[in-house]
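[job 0417] fold request received: site-specific DNA-methyltransferase (adenine-specific)
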Amino acid sequence: MAAKTKLELTWIGKDIRPRLEPRILIEEPEFSYHAKARREGDSFENLLIHGDNLLALKALETDPAVRGKVKCIFIDPPYNTGSAFEHYDDGLEHSLWLGMMRDRLEILRNLLSDDGSIWITIDDNEAHYLKIICDEVFGRGNFVSNVIWAKRTSPANDAKYFSTDHDNILVFAKSLADWKLNRLSRTEKQNTFYKNPDNDSRGPWNSVTYTGNKNRNERPNLYYAIKQPNTGEDIFPPDGLTWRYGVETHNANEADKRLYWGKDGNSRIPRMKMFLSDAGLVVPRSIWPSDEVGSTQVSMNEQKALSKNPFATPKPELLLARILEIATNPGELVLDSFAGSGTTGAVAHKMGRRWIMVELGEHAKTHIVPRMQKVIDGTDKGGVTEAAGWKGGGGYRFCRLAPSLLEKDAWGNWVIRKEYNPAMLAEAMCKHFNYAYAPSTEHYWMHGSSSETSFIYVTTSSLTFEQLRAISDEVGENRSLLICCTAYEAKGESLPNLTLRKIPGAVLDRCEWGKDDYSLKISALPMMADEEEDEAPAAKKTKAGADGDLFDDGE
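[job 0417] inference complete; emitting structure tokens
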């Protein structure tokens, strides 16, 4: 039997991966905001990051307080439609778009908790390519659903071919075995399907079929006669079907007067009464109508109420509320790394979730900051405010990415950037070596830890051997210390609880320095390798296809 091949999506530049610098975050207090009073359950450590979202994700990935702690990620990335939007470029070349998404999804997966999920809105232009990338990053077995959001309430009559009335929402779990969704609250519309035509004392009810989809050969125990109460006739299931329940369960249903035989009681096939008083939460469905979760028109109206310069492609608050209701519980952490106008943070805040948003554009300040201030003040009356019972409260910190840690001096040597003070340097080195930055008030040499017995000390001093021995004595035999310094004096005597690294040399080859923009302009498209240039034209066509991508048989 032939070996099963693995299909992979391949594109020009797929093997080229950015070597990201783990930046630290610097708060800009003039844009941070919090309520004037504290209430029980309020969160004040929400985070709005202004800067390149790939670098921001790397900063979060190297933060032990965030890595593996995010319960729900929602992203609304550029759809790559070729359209021009005021607030971001939505026309990346196809191969660049694929690389952009892959690089970000890999970090996003690391940020998710084991029981977390990611939700991605996308249209049909890239949805099927994105699904395959997600299969590679998250594992095909962790695919949950492709939810259809009916975003339009009327057709686009100027469409050349079809009126595009929906967007896709791809849903993946970090681990499907660990992920548990929340069922949805019942809506008034759903309750209207329950009536009481026979004045049953138990109240309104709806009915469901009493037949199953098996035949008598498959399930002979479900094929039997039941008595029609009006005529006394023995009724068997229709040809090719069985009853839905066994004899004992049927007898119990009959005794509980749950069978409905039609208005006049003479139907030949009963139905089963399901009472509203017994109805619980609702299983989510894969098609979400605009009258339930909002439309693009609704989201634009929400934007106009918030800003004189509305964001071009917002999502309605009801849509985010539906996602967060399914995927999270109060107090859990939500992340959006394509924050746009800030809808995710606004809805998460109103619903009592903690949140992190990342946005590169200036609308982080012009749109998101004033929006979140209104939410915190309780003056934003739109969206899901009333449904969530939101009255205001909480707060957030506004941070920007720090500049690159290293720069070249006048002689071309890599040196620590002048803007880095000792605290910033210590935090940056903690990120590079995967330590949690937590300076001790008791020990000057304890800037962070990777475990209960493993610590890091960062200094720009040159340490003598006597200083190192004194530190070693204080650390003790049962603890270890990584020391990052500019120089140190070594002697033959061993200090086994100390590990010494010189800076900047210790981190010089770890990443790209001084690169602040990973938004992937078209000019960044990598050149085709020379050996591919020499191939026969037919081979080139097979390899690259029309757009430089293909399905390739993997190993």
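[job 0417] notes: The radius of gyration is 30 Å. Residues 218 and 242 are 9 Å apart (CA to CA).
[job 0417] exit 0
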